[in-house]
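User: Fold this, then the next.

Assistant: Folding the first:
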Amino acid sequence: MLEAYRRRGGAERCEERFADVGGVRQDVPVTGMKTFWAALPTEGRWLLSTVAIQTLGRGLTLPFTIIYLHEVRGFELGLSGALMSLIAITGLVVTGPGGTLIDRFGAKVVLLAGLAAMIVGCTLLAFATTPAVAAVALVLIGINFGVSWPGFNALIASIVDGELRQQYFGINFALVNLGIGVGGIVGGFFIDVDDPGTFTTIFLIDAATSLIPMALLLGPLRHVRTHGEHDADAPPVGGYREIIRQPVVLWLTLLTFISVFIGYGQMEAGFPAFARQVAEVSTQVIGFAFAINTAVIVLLQFTVLKLISGHRRTRVMQVMALVWAVSWLLLGGAGLLPDTLAAAIGVLAFMGVFAFGETMLQPTVPAVYNDLASDRNRGRYNAINSAAFQGGAIAGPVAAGVLLEHGLDAWYIAVMVIGCAGIVLLALAVERRIPADANGVPEASTERAADASSSPTAPTAD
């Protein structure tokens, strides 16, 4: 059956996958990377095999864009920070309309438009000598960020289903980190603030790497559909208001926001500021901490996927929250011993433990959103996920800046730990409302069948 499945054509395979999402390929228990790869359809292999290369260009530029604007182009630091915020603000603005367009026209069309904006934006930024040109470039990059999250998540969800989907999201996250991490290391050795041409080169490379997903969408993935066929007899699909009114979606969105607020929202602002100002460690230690973050995710992600397979995703989120609470307490301990070896060890330990928690977040939350969605509203569900993520990423640095600027170091750590407790409570609220299959456990009918088969009066199945 598996061999027959592999030999089917691209369009036919996509159609049959929707009709038989409970088939062998989607529910194969993955016990190793080889098994996972064999269980993937061809489209999934194409998409996953290019992730690290696609994100390499982003890793080249992400840590150094503000340095480029301030030290190379000579913009004031405050203005450079404001320009950088345009990426997140634009992304948040276009996420909602982007999700609607994905449901109406498909992810391929929207992603191609976003990637085109990314190419133009990176090219403009490579030669931007005025704040106005830089602003236009960063807005175009923000447009891509706003549509790429829901677009690629919808694409992934259309290619894989069931337990394989959760594993795919996790491995995809590890490869994204690998590409960004390697790109950051290469960029750190290559760029020179006294040579603007080095920055021009990395931004042009970032633009060129966007050609890879464009080629995939126009080639091997051209038959993948992320939106359902229009049916005049089908009930109308509700908009964002109807989706967010569902209690499970509301609680899940709040959980996502809090997770990002105390997680990724602190990685570019709160954590470096606390490590430098309170723990008083060197910039080299902070750089090494980010390298540890990438290494832990890449090395442990597949192991964690095997450990959480078959468990309730809400319970995995609770374990993640407890792990993160420990990491923030470690960072707080580093702040009690400033400018010491113990402080440096505490900072490094924080990032290693925090990264372990990250390996539990990315496989679960996107999978829940896509298991709750249908093909007719998948883009909007992923847009809600993206908006919650971006909202937390915007609010996190603001809160960190206010607390640390006023010397409220202990309160900063306390807010992070309280946020971890909030994740535990929100996960409990989601668990009471979420369908069993969306929570990563067998459906109720499957459980009833198992109970019946164990009954002494139950007939024996051949």
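Now the next one, as you asked:
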Amino acid sequence: MKNSAVLAPPAAAPAPPAEMSARTLLLLEGPIVPTLLRLAWPNVLVMVAQASTGLIETFWVSRLGTNALAGMALVFPGVMMMAMLSAGAVGGGISSAVARALGSGRRADADALVLHALLINCALGLLTSALFLVFGRQIYAAMGGRGGSLDAAMAYSNVVFAGNIVLWLMNALASVIRGSGEMLFPSTVVCVGVALLIPLSPLFIFGLGPVPAMGIAGGGAAVVATTALMAVILAWYILSGNSVVRLRIARLEPAFFADILRVGGVGTLSTLQTTLTVALTTGIVGAAAGPDAVAGYGTGSRLEYLLIPLVFGLGAPLVAMVGVNIGAGQKERALRIAMTGAALAFVACEAIGLAAALWPSAWLRLFGDDPMMIATGSAYLRFVGPAYGFFGLGLALYFASQGAGRLMWPLLGGFARLVIAVGGGWLALALTGSLPLVFVMLGAALAAYGAIVGIAVRSGVWFRKDRLALRAASVSS
């Protein structure tokens, strides 16, 4: 079915305001694939670099033993949840609001959104820090942590979450810049931070000269230090006037908070679903086979988590491109952009998943050679890896839906994934005691997620309210 059959006949697109920047006009008028790839490649590069943060830490922490590796696996879902919330969920709401304001020519509103974005992320950073600093031990124990693995988890978690607000502020600044269509500068800043992490992580973990060995906590200290530096550089970029949008002292407006949180709040629920899915399945694996199996599942599923920053490389420009075109009334072009990005994400993630399924030990042996860890991680990758393409497709359309301000179907797809993965996994384990069958359910859950979101967006659900309004207007006339 062609898009013209899906969408209401669009009104003639208004001429773009004269004050629009060349970057905004590119998002509105540039050829879709070249423009998307032009904006995506810096983000893909930097997200691979940022994903290396976890790999660098895991590599060095694995030298501390299986308990340290299992402890890091317990904390990792929470750490990734902070990154996904601050950059992908609320950050997507920030980018979407900025992009839609620029697309409709509301430059002053785009500037005012900067202050509102910083205040929102500052408050959420403090709130989430308090949650893990106060209840961290109970959370990790519920996920299967005990003994040495639980102690290691707490040592790492307390340092990371003490500096959590820095991550939220850094991603607020980066999201503002990305919402204007500028992808290269924030990507470059993250690359600088990752480059600094390479020497800092082993330095803080093992110590050297006057620097004391901090153990697993040193990995967290290195991440906090490099994130703080990135936040300072991004703040300078906006304050110096290099960005399309500027930080201005403006009266706080409930409408601006609502514009960000309307998208970011639903995105937060979607992110919590993803994190809860991994946390609960980690608990199922731990209850079935113990800490060594948790280490294997955590190491294997880390590859799935690394798909998130990879797809975010495409997702950030999807938010900006879809948001600007929605703001300008170009609905059909917005939908074409979304489906193009989803197809690219499917191909990239499926290639990674198939490679991991065929050669799982190539990934797992980077982090250790414990037989139980290798066996559990290999089983996970063989059964779940082939479904990674659907995860990438659904995630790309989640970002595109942020740009459109329509997140209900990604939320419903995430809920279906949660039910199938956790409910089906628990039932499979209870009835058969088979851990591989649990992983089969995880793969089926990813496939259902991608299929539900893909079919819904392609059918035109973003514009259903517009069609209904058009019908009502035609009937009343």
